[in-house]
Amino acid sequence: MSNLNDLTTLALPSGNCLVADETASRLSLSLQGQPLIELRLTREPALHLRLEERFGHPDGQAFWAACYWLFARDAACQRLTWHLDDVPTEALLSGLLIPTDVTGQYRCERTLFWQLPQPWLGESRTGSYPQQMVISDGKRHPLRPIKPRGEVYRRFDARLGAWVSLRTVEIEHDLARFNRWQNSPRVASFWQEEGSLEKHREYLSKLEADPHTLTLIGCFDDQPFAYFEAYWAKEDRIAPFYDAADYDRGIHMLVGEEHHRGPHKVASWLSALVHYLFLDDPRTQRVVAEPRADNAKMIGHMHNQCFHCEKEFDFPHKRAALMMLGRERFFDRCSLV
C-alpha cells in the first residue's frame, strides 16, 4: 500500500497526471507538465487556501484539481476554505464550492466533492433518467434506463497505489473467467452456482436481458479480479423483506482472484462499487446487500465500510443479513482518496 505522506503525483482517468510541489505553506500543481495553479496554505486551525496564481486554465478545472489533491493527500481532511477575490461562478454552479457568510470566502466539503460524478464516470450517463412508473411482474417501479456498456467507473486509489475500475460483463470475453471463479470451492460455498460453461453462459445471458440487473467486472490496474451484480432493489426478490425505495440499489459480490483478497483490497473495491452506484443516479439513497448471515468475514468488511445490519431474514435458499448503507452516511464518512 502507498503512503499518502509520500504522494507527489495523482493519475486521472483521462490519462493526464497531476503533479504537486507541496510545503507546509504552499501548493503548486501542474497538469501534464504545464503549471495549473499555485496556492498559499494556512493549516491552523483548519486548512485555508489563498490563490496566488492561476495559469490560464478554467477556474473550475484548477480549483477541482487542488481540492482533489488535498483530499487525496489527507483522508481525514473534511473541509477546505478558499479565499478568492473573484466570484468562482463555475465552481459554485457545480457544487464544488459553497459561499460562506464572509465575503470572498468559500468552502469545499469532502462530503460534496465525492458526489461530483466527473471524472470518475467518464463518458457514462451522469444525469437522472426521466421517471415514469411502470408495472412488471406485479411490481410497480420506475422505468429503468438502458444499461451501459463498457467501462462505467475509474479512479486511482492513492492509498492502494492502483487503478480501480468497473466495466460491464462481455459474455464471450468473460465466460471462462466467470466459470473458473464460480467453480472455486471458496466461492461455491457461498454462491452455490458451480457448473459448466453452458450453465454459466445461460446464467449471464439471462441477467444481460434483465433490465433490473447490471453485471460488472471489477479490475485493479485493468486486470479482472471480481464479479459484481448491481440490481434495482424495488424489482428484486429482496423487496418484500424491507421497505425498498424506488432507487435503492443492491449488490452481489464475488472476488475470484485469490491474490486480490484481503481487507485493504476490499476497502478499495467495495467503496468504489458503492461510490459508482451513488453517482450513477443521484436519487439513489441506499445501497443494500444480503450476504449469508453466517458469512462473518464479508459482513465484517461491510461494517468497516459503514454498512450496518438492519436485520436477519430468511430467503427460501438461505438465512441472510440485510446490510444497508445510506448516501448521507457514505459521503459523510467518505474515506476515498
From TrEMBL:
InterPro entries: Acyltransferase_MbtK/IucB-like. Signal peptide: none annotated. It comes from the Bacteria. Pfam families: Acetyltransf_8 (PF13523). Residues 167-214 form the Acyltransferase MbtK/IucB-like conserved domain. This is Acetyltransferase. It comes from Pseudomonas farris.
